[in-house]
Design brief:
about 30% strand, alpha+beta
Length: about 120
C-alpha cells in the first residue's frame, strides 16, 4: 500500500474517532459545574441504539470529587447529548442503558451536574 492510500484511509478514521469519545466528553463537560475538573474513564457506544456510557468523575460544588459515575449519552445527527448520570458499573450501564435502549431506574441527580436545559 502506498503512502497516498494510507493517508486517504487514516484521515477519515482519525476524524471519526474525534467525533466519538471527544464529542461525548464535550457533552458531559457542558453539563458539569466544574468542567475543567472532569476525569473520564471507560467509554462505550452502541451505534444500533444511538446510546453510550462514559465513566465520569468531577468536582461538586464543595470542591471535592464525587467518585466515578456513568454518564448516559445519546448521539444523533446533531452530535452527542448528555442525558443523566447513574451510579451503575460500566458493565451495567452498557447492559441496562446503551445496549437495550431502555431508561434505567438507577439514574440519579448528581450535584456535579447543572439542571437540565429545557
Amino acid at each position: 500500500m502506498n503512502i497516498k492510500k494510507l493517508c486517504a484511509l487514516a484521515i477519515p478514521l482519525a476524524l471519526a474517532a474525534c467525533s466519538g469519545r471527544s464529542g461525548a466528553e464535550k457533552a458531559v463537560r457542558e453539563a458539569l459545574k466544574d468542567p475543567d475538573s472532569a476525569k473520564f474513564g471507560e467509554f462505550y457506544y452502541n451505534s444500533s441504539t444511538g446510546k453510550g456510557c462514559l465513566t465520569t468523575n468531577a468536582k461538586n460544588s464543595m470542591g471535592g470529587y464525587t467518585g466515578d459515575s456513568q454518564s448516559h449519552l445519546t448521539k444523533d445527527s446533531d452530535g452527542w447529548h448528555y442525558e443523566a448520570d447513574s451510579d451503575q458499573s460500566p458493565e451495567d450501564c452498557r447492559k441496562d442503558y446503551a445496549d437495550n435502549g431502555s431508561s434505567d431506574d438507577k439514574m440519579m441527580s448528581n450535584d456535579t451536574m447543572m439542571s437540565a436545559k429545557p
